[in-house]
Amino acid sequence: MPRPRVIHQPGTQQALKRGIATLVKAIAPTLGPTPRRSIAQNQAKFELLDDGGVIARRIVALPEQEDDVGAMLLRQALWAVHQHVGDGAATTAVLYERIYNEGLRFIAAGADPMRLRARLMELLPQVSERLLADARPLRSEAELQALAFSVCYDEEMATVLGEVIHSIGQYGQVDIRAGHGRSLEYNYVEGSYWRGGAQSKEMLRGFQRAVVELHDAAILVTDMDIEEPRDLVPVMSLALRCGIKNLLLVVGSISETGLSVVLDDRLKDKIRTVVVKIDEFHPGELSVLQEDIALLTGAKPVLQQAGDSLEDVRAGDFGGARWVWADDKNFGFASGKGDPLQLREQARRLRAAYAGAENDDDRARLLGRLGRLNGGLATVYVGGIAEDEIRGRKELAERTVRALRRAASDGVIPGGGVALLRCREQLLAEAEAQDELESRAARHILATAAEAPIRQLLANAGYDPSEVLARLGQAGGKSGFDVMADAIVDVTEAGILDVAQVQLEALQRAVSSAALALTIDVLVLHREPETMTDP
Fold first, then answer.
1. Quick one: the chain helix, strand, coil %, rounded to 5?
2. Nearest Cα to Cα of residue 414 among 107, 150, 92
């Protein structure tokens, strides 16, 4: 059992440095187009991992308690990057380690840790601006596919996902599912869909693939729980009077007894009805999903919380869609009769909310709503030889889609570590003009860190980083090194690109977290430290 201790300098810096180095050694090999992998044991199973964020999450604690603090500080930063932008953890790791180690060197030379941290944070906006100086939007499907390859390093996956995002746009719905073959398959479905299928298998009887389809259907949306047959009688009577032949009812819930009305053979001959409910929603989310369905279909929701009653339903409360479908798990429709102006305004509000959302769950929910309003859906089935491979490829596809969405919205910058490397010369030039030790040190630290990612990428590919960097210095411009082609190239023309927001997030997290770590003087170690699975 660990013993409680208080560790002072220089033991604190040494322990943090060892912990950071241990985690970086497990993650840095995954950087670049020729990544190596880490293997993690999970009970009786093993995972082959090439995602820095996931590797960090699998390392719950180091056996040496004093080293564990540094590792967990870095782990928290890496998981934040992974959650927010889906990629960039390996870049963050190598930046973080170089900033911390260089910072220790200057502190040993007399720099004050608190002032050094302040100067690093003051420089961060300036360096961030330089990093994004050449940011531009993606121009074509080919560029999306090239960028996807830089994230997943899987040619088949990059081709498919690049085409999918190009076809449905950055806010379109992309459903990644486990496939049954060895390759990737995908299809497009017109319209929007929600989880929560037909509430009776009887509604699916007689249809191919157990999917019921309704054409030119009326749609009624309500949050009410239907318990008795009499609850639905006013709605069905009104539908008959209005001459409705196909009807989709979106309800809060419905009992077996309540279903008896719509399943009655005498009524089914006159009006085919499918009853569905929305599943998998967060508390308070059901009402906004019903609002979206109403906007798409032109329906007026009948809401119990607003004091409405099914007895008060009017003909104008029904919306409509050209095509409606439902199976036992999902339902959807296409060509809804909603007001295009209202839909555009709702989409504008959701885009603004998505751009400003900090919580990852909120961003995911807003993105799902935007995708449904856009009316485009792609389903990608990810195959493989074994279950573990399929699971790993599925996670990789989801990470790649997140990166492509970021690129579509925030643009791309020269890849292969070139954009960061180009910040180096100006930082070194500015350092010479600084009188204060901490100001000069901060610029030297970031200049050294700026070349860390490309050095790691080159080393992972089997090259001598110093030799290649010397050749790049002579080439100048936007030149980078294509490790796949073993040549110096213009990285933009070669399609070697990085997502601007991913690189920015990696830089900002690494600088802010490593700068904070430089100010830690004392470690207080408990006998039984709390272990957290989530960073």
1. 55, 20, 30
2. 150
Among 379, 486, 506, CA closest to 92? 506
Q: Report the candidate in 370, 364, 336, 335 with the shortest Cα–Cα distance to residue 351.
A: 370
- Angle of helix 113-131 versus helix 89-108 axis, rounded to 10: 140
What pLDDT is stored for residue 1 in this prediction?
A: 46
CB 224 within 8 A of CB 251: yes
pLDDT of residue 229: 84
- What pLDDT is attached to residue 18? 95
Parts of the chain with a pLDDT under 70: 1-3, 35-48, 206-209, 280-284, 375-376, 477, 527-535
Which of 224, 398, 179, 369 is closest to 289 using CA atoms? 369
In 278-302, which positions are buried (b, 16+ CB within 10 angstroms) versus exposed (e)?
Answer: beebeeeeeeebbebbbbbbbbbbb
Q: Which residue carries 């960097």 as its tokens?
A: 469
What pLDDT is stored for residue 452 in this prediction?
A: 96
3-state class (DSSP) for residue 276: strand
Comparing CA positions, the residue from 159, 124, 115 lying closest to residue 450 is 124
Residue 87: partners with Cβ closer than 8 Å, 6 or more residues away = 151, 399, 402, 403, 499, 502
Residue type present at position 445: I
CA distance 467 to 445: 22
DSSP string, 364-381: HHHHHHHHHHHTEEEEEE
For residues 188 and 169, the answer to whether their CB atoms sit within 8 Å is: no
The amino acid present at 84, given as its one-letter code, is H
The pLDDT of residue 207: 63
Write out 488-514 in H/E/C secondary structure.
EEECCCCCCEEEHHHHHHHHHHHHHHH
